[in-house]
Amino acid sequence: MAVVEKKKHTRRDEVNEIIRADDLWEPVGHTPMAEIPDLRNWDMRLMKQYKPLYAPMCDLCCFCTYGKCDLTGDKRGACGIDISAQQARVVLLACCMGMSAHGGHGRHVLHYLIEKYGRDYPINLGDQVAVEAPHIRTVLGLKPETLGDLEKALEYVESQLIHLISSLHTGQEGSALDYESKALHASMLDHVGMEVCDIAEIVGFNFPTSVADTPLVDMGWGAIDKTKPTILLVGHNPVTAVPIVDYINEHGLQDKIEVGGICCTALEVTRYSERAKIVGPLSRQLYFVKTGFADVIVTDEQCIRTDMPQQAAAVGSALIATTDKASYGLEDMTKREADEIVKDMVKGKQTLIFDPEKAAEVAVKVALELAPKRKKELVTPEQVPELAKDHRLCNMCSQVCPNLLPVGDAVEAAKNGNLEPLAEVFSKCIGCGKCEQECPRHVPIFKMMQAVAGSETWKVRAGRGPVMDTEIRKVGAPLVLGTIPGIIAIVGCSNFPEEINEVADIAEEFAKRKYIVVLTGCSAMTAGMKKDKEGKTLYEKYPPDFDAGGVVNIGSCVANAHITGAAMKVANIFATLPLRGNYEVIADYILNRVGACGLAWGAMSQKAASIGTGCNRLGIPVVLGPHSSKYRRQYVSRKEEDDWTVMDGRERKLVDTEEPSPEHLAYVVESKERAIVTMAKLCIRKNDTPQGRQIKLTHYIALHKQYLGTLPDDLHIYVRKTSDIPIFFKKEVMAYLEKVGWKEKPVLSLPTLVGTYPSEVPLDAVVH
Amino acid sequence: MTTTLPYHRVNVLTGTKAARIIEDAGEYAHLIKRARRPLLVLGARTLTMSLDGRLLIEYAADIASAIGIPICATAHTKKKLLELGVEPASSYDITEIVNHLKDPEWRGVKKEGNHDLVMFLGFRTDFGEQALSTLKHYAQHLKTMTLCKYYYPHASYSLPNLKDEKWKEFLDNLITNLKEKEA
Ligand code: SF4
Ligand code: SF4
Ligand code: SF4
Question: Angle formed by the axes of helices A176-205 and A264-272, to 10°?
Answer without folding.
Answer: 30
